[in-house]
Specification:
Elements lengths: L1 H21 L2 E13 L10 E7 L3 E7 L15 E7 L2 E5 L5 E11 L4
Antiparallel strand pairs: 1-2, 1-4, 2-3, 3-6, 4-5, 5-6
Length: about 110
């Protein structure tokens, strides 16, 4: 009986990571806009940004983390990017390999072309 329980536990444990990976979705998208959010101060020197990303199915507004270093000139508006969606987390990657992580704050259905 113990061997059967151990085997069942190992099988369940091996399937859990696969189910977690299925939740993330990587899509080719277009960066529509980069906008500043809030303002900086003496204590908080890094600006926070919203990335507006357009995929074939949805338009996402993804906000960079407060206090994180982000160079907006590396993300050219209108250029194609790879956009990874994992629940409320997002990650944008440019064609040159520059990455930024962000939190998805808004999702809208993509407008018809």
């Amino acid at each position: 009986m113990t061997l059967l329980r151990t085997m069942a536990f190992c099988l369940a444990a091996s399937l859990l990571p696969a189910a977690g990976l299925a939740d993330s979705l990587i899509q080719t998208a277009t960066l529509k806009d980069v906008q500043t959010v809030g303002s900086t101060s003496k204590k908080q020197k890094h600006q926070q940004y919203d990335l507006l990303v357009d995929t074939s199915t949805n338009e996402y507004t993804c906000r960079t983390k407060l206090g994180s270093s982000f160079n907006p000139t590396q993300f050219v508006v209108g250029s194609p990017i790879q956009f990874k969606v994992d629940g409320q987390k997002g990650e944008a990657t440019t064609s040159t390999g520059k990455k930024t992580k962000c939190s998805i704050v808004r999702v809208a259905a993509s407008s018809a072309p």
